Amino acid sequence: MNRFNPIARAASVLAVIATTAACAAQPVPPPQPGAPLPPPAPSANAPLPPPFAEAPRDGAPATVSGVLQRFVINPEGDVDGMLLADNTLVRFPPHVGTQVAAAFAPGATVNVNGFAQPGGTLRARQIADANNGRSVVDQPPPADTQRPPKLLAGVGLVKLDATGRVLRVTSAPRGEPDGVLLTDGTVIKLTPPAAARFANLLQPGATIAAQGYGTRNRYGESLQATAFGTPGNLTVIYDVPPR
């Protein structure tokens, strides 16, 4: 009968440990030319990376806070948006813009609740002053609100020229590009079919030029382009203002 030999068992264990230590002590071969270097080993004291933050889906509830940098207007001259200091674009209907412009001023810190829109824009549902709590809520206009006749649409527009660098591309409700916002706050609107013709220029940082009809007031400048392109090289889109 074979009996268990503790000396042999101990010798076997020591042999395994010695083999493992020898393997661990072998130098790591240098990387082959052109091969990517392995990532450095993380330090025990290194801070954890911040959690990945995904942009909200279009139509999903969203909240932003920031300093009101300036208002933006549509070609008719109505305030229909605000640009925050971090270049977040907040949109709201023109009938709400009158209240917003009366309640807030550039430099105010605002909290905005709303819904994400195509292109990273936020459609505001409520805008509140972070300091005094004063707020404006998007509500439908009263049923008896007087609206100008359609025959007078565009009567007050003037011919304008604009040149500058694109800060961001604006989008129509379905997500199609429909114009640009320049770094100086000027808004240039295009119809989505016209915008598709200038996809190479509708890029942040591009220098563009435009002619068209719109409004310039104390809040800024906005025009509906009838010609678009680069400085000194404009392409006529149509000869008369679009209706």
Radius of gyration based on Cα positions: 31 Å
Shape: globular
How many beta-strand segments? 12
CATH class of the domain at 152-236: Mainly Beta
Alpha-beta classification? mainly beta
Major sheet description: 5 strands, mixed, barrel
**What is the second-level CATH architecture of the domain at 152-236?**
Beta Barrel
Write down the secondary-structure element order: HEEEHEEEEEEHEEE
Order the strands across the largest sheet as they lie in space: 1-2-3-5-4
Helicity level = 10-25%
Q: CATH topology of the domain at 152-236, which one?
A: OB fold (Dihydrolipoamide Acetyltransferase, E2P)
Q: Between the first and last Cα atoms, what is the distance in angstroms?
A: 106 Å
What's the CATH superfamily of the domain at 152-236, by name? Answer: Nucleic acid-binding proteins
Number of helices: 3
Strand content: 35-45%
**Contiguous runs where pLDDT drops below 50 for at least 5 residues:** 1-28, 38-55
Mean pLDDT: 80
